[in-house]
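Can anyone check this?
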Amino acid sequence: MGSTSIEWTEVTWNPVTGCDRVSPGCENCYALTLAKRLQAMGSPRYQNDGDPRTSGPGFGVTCHEDLVERPLRWRKPRLVFVNSMSDLFHPEVPDDFIARVFDTMKAADQHTFQILTKRPQRVARMAEQLPWPSNVWMGVSVENARYRFRIDHLRTVPSKVRFLSVEPLIGDVGSLDLSGIHWVIVGGESGHNARPIREEWVTSIRDQCVEAEVAFFFKQWGGRTPKAGGRELDGEFWDELPEDLAADI
């Protein structure tokens, strides 16, 4: 378990580390930068280098057998972001390893697990092979209008909660079909090379969520640091959660 400053979750669990760039949202990947730093510090989990064309030092895809059952030891219920340092549905992660991760999530039903992927085609292909208990939420990243197709794949997955991470928002996403979607997270990019975000892109998504009665969470404007631009939108903080979870808080 790792503590995290990510506003929409509580802890992270990384049975897999490492990934590859697959779309423009990956260009300034925070996890890749962190993996390089952890490798330099000697962390044993980040010694596998990835393809320098798409990944980097310490960011080769690595499955950690000793972490698969870790959440079973945590007694206190938590919101758990699965693989903040990877993508569970990366093609180099074996089917049977993914199945074991899902078995752990099903058994650890005191927790709520949030999975986020940029590879929803594989999720859709594997969906019938996996258990989908109510404590497993499935999400996809959508950084601009070109990647809205990921939402269509997500809609086919029998997860109780399906969510979108529109972060980093680097372009107008246009009109969203939010049918079957329960939660939308939006955020600007942060870091030295952060790409700009426009207010009208954010308010358009917010207004579409309000119209569709979908929970909306605005994470940050971004900038040089995650907190540089603050979190207020039209003078308010938007911290909505899916209805079933919000009712328990």
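Reply from J.R.: I decoded it. Residues 2-246 form one domain.
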